[in-house]
Amino acid sequence: MNTELRFLLAILLMVGVLVVSNVLFPPIPPEPPAGAGAAPEPGPDTGSAPTIAGLGDSAPPLPVEPEGNVVVESPLFRHVFSTRGARLVAAELPGHRSFTREGPVQLIPEGEAALGARLVVGSDTLDLREAPFTPSQERVTVRENGTGSLTFRHERRGLVVEVTYGFRGDSYLIDVTGTVQGADRALLLTDMGPGLPLNDADQAAEERALAYVGNHLQEGIDSYALSNVERPRVHEGPYLWAAFKSKFFVLALLPGTGSAGADYFGGILVEPLRENHARVAVTRPLGADGDFAYRAFLGPQDYTRLTALGSDLEDVNPYGWRIIRPIIRPIIGLITWILTFLHNSLSLSYGWVLIVFGVLMRIVLWPFNQKAMRAQMKNMAAQPLLKEIQTKYKDNPEKLQKEMMRLYKEHGFNPLAGCLPMLLPWPVLIALFFVFQNTIEFRGTSFLWLPDLSAPDPFFVLPVFLGVSMFFLQWVSMRSMQEVNPQMKMMLWMMPIMMVFIFFRLAAGLNLYYSVSNIATIPQQYWIAKERQKVQAQSPIKLKRS
């Protein structure tokens, strides 16, 4: 079962339990009264192979020379460029450990490359991805607050191609500029490679997240799972950016800045490869002087960094389902800020931060739970009246409806009043689900026996404990009730079992937060149970006779 669907099922089950818990004896309710520079061929996924002028033709073969590599290093990255095609053949992130290979995260699949170029001129295509380029340096080292650059040059029969990569030590962004002389009015195709390799322990979840994404100027952001690419596709632009994304990392191309940078990419070309891989390229015409510029981001899905790049790149791996995204995004931003603030200001690991956050949430929500409890007390006091009305007027629906409306008005009886205040913690739970799905800060963060808070508990201790704590909370609540209907007795056993089944593959951090929240609720649940018993011991309110 898909992780998001499993979590949605959990939310629906909890809603059901909450409603049943507050509506012990439900009353009979009253009757409710296309742009410039675009790829020149068919639109997105026409079902036929893309045919762009010259792509099926071949120019004279380029000479083959020995390949060399140029290493570019900074505190944030270690890139390796090949002298063949001036392509990026390795992109390591030293600050992030890979769980599928020895060493740091790698964003270029082994034996593959990105940022290679092809030129389409009329009916001819010149493939520069294997062309020999001469580098300006043999190695580049960029200090933390410094900058650096690397230039490649290729000359052949009047064609001169020059590409310059600019680096900053405190950024994952690469500024790419270049010129092409000897190819008038050419269309430039820039390769993004075949996709991102797997780097996380939960490879099944990461495979589901693998996709290419584009932000169309008019149509907005669309994501396409790599596992579903079965035939070539052409997506007509204009595009603000195109990207490959995994669960926590991204390789994105954005238009460049300055006079050489176009505002948009013309289109996105997609060619299926092996499973979970597809070769993607973006198109744009060269400038009037044969110049071009674009930016490449290869790094973690850091919300702050992606937001700074603009054009909604932070939504490359969007939080939540489209329909709830506008609501959930501000909550996620606030929760992420709180968790990061607690982590930095208290110097606590994120495991302890989640424990503190779970307790704080229960303290903050205490007044709302109090309101829910008082509503429950009113409902309990009105239960005898409700039964009396239902029995007395069971053969007179019109009179039954009238008397029940009077009961609602005079005694404040509302079967849902106890539910609504208790729904407030759920947006937090939903937000935390997506925080652990996508937030890079939690990736690889260990706590006690948990190797990774963003991955499932390897020993399933927390999901089982979550089920036990849920059973205990329901048991405490039911013990204080004079009458318990059969549905609630069934849910006492079934709900914890279902929650264990649903949560056992969810992030350990989410299980930790929810378990702590349940524990922090126990004192309040005892207090509510005692108050409920006091109300039940009192004489029931009397029905006013009309």
Give a structural overview.
With 546 residues, this protein is an alpha+beta fold. The chain folds into 2 domains: 3-20 and 332-365 and 424-537, no CATH class; 69-314, Distorted Sandwich (Beta-galactosidase, Chain A, domain 5). 36% of the residues lie in helices and 24% in strands. The chain has 11 helices and 19 strands. The chain has helices spanning 3-22, 203-209, 303-309, 325-346, 350-364, 366-392, 397-411, 425-438, 461-479, 486-503, 508-537; strands spanning 69-73, 78-82, 88-97, 104-106, 117-121, 124-127, 134-135, 139-141, 147-156, 159-168, 173-181, 187-193, 211-216, 220-225, 233-245, 249-255, 265-272, 278-285, 291-300. The strands form 2 sheets. Strands 5, 6, 7, 9, 10, 11, 12, 13, 14, 15, 16, 17, 18 and 19 form a 14-stranded antiparallel β-sheet that branches. A hairpin with a 3-residue loop joins β13 (211-216) and β14 (220-225). α1 runs antiparallel to α10 (486-503), α4 packs across α5 (350-364) and α6 packs antiparallel against α7 (397-411). The longest helix has 30 residues, at 508-537. It is elongated, with a radius of gyration of 30 Å. Mean pLDDT is 81; it is low at 23-59 and 541-546.
Summarize the structure.
With 546 residues, the protein is of the alpha+beta class. It has eleven helices and 19 strands. It starts with a helix and ends in a 9-residue tail after the last helix.
